[in-house]
Amino acid sequence: MRSLIRFLNAKNVKPAEIHRQLVEIYGENVMTDGMIRKWVRQSNDGRTNVHDEARSGRSSVVNDGLVAKVNAKIRENRRFTIRMLYEEFPQISKTALHEIVTNRLNRKLCSCWVPKMLTDAHKTKPLGCALTFLTRYSEDGNEFLNKIVTGDETCHGFVMSLQNQNNCRWNGGTHGPPQQNKFKTTSSAHKIMCSVFWDRQGILLVDFLSRGETINAVRCCETLRKLWRVIQNKRRGMQRQGIVLLHDNARPHSAGVTQNLIQQFGREQFYHPPYSPDLTPSNYHLFLKLKRDFGGRRFESDDDAKNGVHQWLSSLAASFFEEGIDKLVLRYDKCLNNGGSYVEK
Questions:
Q1: Does the UniProt entry include the keyword Metal-binding (predicted)?
Q2: What residues are paired with 203 via a beta bridge?
Q3: What is 193-230 written as a DSSP string?
Q4: Are 195 and 143 in contact (CB under 8 A)?
Q5: Which of 240, 242, 239, 204 minimizes the C-alpha distance to 223?
Q6: Is the pLDDT of residue 169 over 60?
Q7: What is the mean pLDDT of the chain?
Q8: Can you tell me the mean pLDDT for 111-130?
């Protein structure tokens, strides 16, 4: 919330207008007008930290004895999760266990690839998109979410590697045991690429490319024409209610010929900020689960891989797709509150 105040203040929006917009999105129980003016003054005075300053208070229930017991248990199995530790120490709350593990002992290491280190200038675009999205959602609610059609491309190998999350280990610093080698899965020479489009109700289109074919603007337009035909057959009500296309700004998507086709068909397109896979439902929801579920699997042919994808998509419940679109609200809200930085979860 404070990041949003700082963002709007940088755009010379008056405190009273900031308060009005926040009330419109979050309701009457949002931050008071006086508190907003306070944060505007502090921002104008040069404050950049939007978090509370450290302050004294009641001492934590965490003590050295608890830390030692938890540390001993983790050393027995460095792939312990907080939930597993809670089963071993039911007398300690999950919050206290999380404090012990992350602040007093270890960090669970798992690299997360991001496309770019965001500068303050980059962060203004996700902030602006977040404000637009949440305002639209505040006005239209689920009717807005029901209009969203999202899609992206993914590369599917004949040998699917295991996800990093499945191999996370607690790192106890220099005092821990030597890191075990993790051998790379044999690289697959055969990969197939497909475009997947879906909405809150389920899968709309799975479009596989031929071997050696790549995604360019012309191929992207072919896929979009197929998508429009599928929507006409599967989602006739969408034609009347309107469609909001949500995909990233990769070069084939943002090319002039692609944009002209979208305008020609009269489709609304929600602007997606650059370098923001964390705000793309296919990346943070659909493809993430696909790669987790297919980790370690092998396929013998193109048809075998395609059938595997189709069967997996058909097995997903409708609630899975609804959840993926609904997460956009939470993620854009987090984007506002962390100042436009990447949303990790």
A1: no
A2: 198
A3: EEEEEE-SSSEEEEEEPPTT----HHHHHHHHHHHHHH
A4: no
A5: 204
A6: no
A7: 81
A8: 80
pLDDT (tens digit per residue) in 39-64: 899 888 888 776 666 444 444 556 77
Average pLDDT over residues 73-99: 75
Distance CA 42, CA 86 (A): 41
Token pair listed for 151: 């899609």
- Most distant pair of Cα atoms in the chain: their distance: 68
Q: Rounded CA gap, 54 and 48, in Å?
A: 15
Residues 113, 176 contacting (CB under 8 angstroms): no
The DSSP secondary structure of 220-273, one letter per residue, reads HHHHHHHHHHHHHHH-HHHHHH--EEE----HHHHSHHHHHHHHHTT-EE----
Q: Sign of torsion, CA 243 291 226 319?
A: negative
pTM of the model: 0.65
Per-residue confidence (pLDDT) for residue 163, from 0 to 100: 53
Other beta carbons within 10 angstroms of residue 124's beta carbon come to: 17
Q: Kindly give, in sequence order, each residue whose CB lies less than 8 Å from that of residue 2, ignoring residues fewer than 6 positions away.
A: 39, 50, 51, 337
Alpha carbons 124 and 134: distance in angstroms, whole number = 15
Residue 67 has pLDDT above 90, yes or no: no
